[in-house]
């Protein structure tokens, strides 16, 4: 294998780290208990002033950057789309209720690719506008709204874990470990529950606002959230379209995230099965030969870890070679170890 001669310094460093990790953890824990310094009266007044300024901020400033970005992009997209389609509303045929409401509703239906057919472009200009807005809308949903949905789901994971462990004392470290272990599974459960709630709400609203029977309402809900959009059943009342503006965007995005999380869950399960197989299978002489990177006839802990990680598919030889290349570029004095002097020389050069 390549770079066998240059791996020994790195392996020695990993081996030393393996033996001293306990000491490092103790030092880190002691550093976390640093006492809080005293606060002068002037500083207290400054803190109070800062808190009053924080309270005076708008609601938008208190939101997470991902949510703010979604709101800004969504307002810009829907605002431009509504204005454009309202200006050319006479070139759109179908059942119309209100100019602004119909334009906003048509913009959402186009953005989510539902396409009922109850409102359709009827001129070259509106057809070209629809083409522009369907592509930009799909990009907005895929790049911006999906990230915001991931953020909201992850924010609820802690609440879900606490709910599952009612009556038990669950500390922050246990919650973090539980999230890291079953993150994708919890995402699937949460999005599935939210999706079921949206389906029920949509079915109830369609039976009340659009006067559909239960079967037709459920049929329209399924055709909407899957973006099938046959068009034989759709929102045709003012109350229904107001509801659809919010519900269509939320439900179609929720279904898309659900299938994505299911795919991630299956991939994670396969990866765990591979890891379990690698750790449970018997180690042979061939494995020792492959793991012996420096050809010294013995396999150290660092070499064994690297070999097992490669078997699990978590790293490959290209990754190892890239790390060794970076190590060699930082090891200016060619001593086989890195020091502060090496980093200073590397940065200056």
Automatic annotation (TrEMBL):
One of its GO terms (molecular function) is outward rectifier potassium channel activity. Coiled coil: none annotated. Keywords: Calcium, Ion channel, Ion transport, Membrane, Transmembrane, Transmembrane helix, Transport. Signal peptide: none annotated. Its main location: membrane. The keyword Nucleotide-binding does not apply. The chain crosses the membrane at residues 70-88, 125-145, 188-206, 242-263. Pfam families: Ion_trans_2. It is a multi-pass membrane protein. PROSITE patterns: EF_HAND_1. Gene3D superfamilies: 1.10.287.70. Residues 73-153, 194-267 form the Potassium channel domain. It is found in: Membrane. GO terms for biological process: stabilization of membrane potential. One of its GO terms (cellular component) is vacuolar membrane. Belongs to the two pore domain potassium channel (TC 1.A.1.7) family. This is Potassium channel domain-containing protein. It comes from Solanum bulbocastanum (Wild potato).
